[in-house]
Amino acid sequence: MSAGGSAAAAAVFVWLGMVLAISFLEAPLKFRAPGVTLPIGLGIGRLVFRALNGCEAVLAAVILVGMILATPSTAAMGGFGVALGALIVQLAVVRPALMRRSNAVLAGGSAGSGQSRSRVHYAYVVLEAVKVLALLTTGVLLLT
Questions:
Q1: Which of 7, 78, 86, 95 is the most exposed, fewest CB within 10 Å of its CB?
Q2: Which residues cross the membrane (predicted)?
């Protein structure tokens, strides 16, 4: 495997690990911690996901450069394209809608009073699952 392919594979698995750890472990658990109120949890979540999304963008750039240097299979490039597409939709469409909702909750609006999660939140979770599957597929294909 070339240096570019190795760098791309490593970045894919780092990205995958970050999404699994933050989106599927940290995010749901933080609201169960003693003393964490909804406003505190939302504030923490906003900071954590802003940092995660920034890291994801950097890792996507590393993967892209590695793939340009290594010219992997079309399937690996397609898997990366799916993960990148999911990230772009999250950043451009879903995250701004979630930000509006959390702003309303933090301002004391009705968006958080006794209501369940919004459809936008579920869309974000679905896109995270798509990213996980796409990154796992891409990483395996880069290693084969």
A1: 78
A2: 6-27, 47-69, 75-94, 122-143
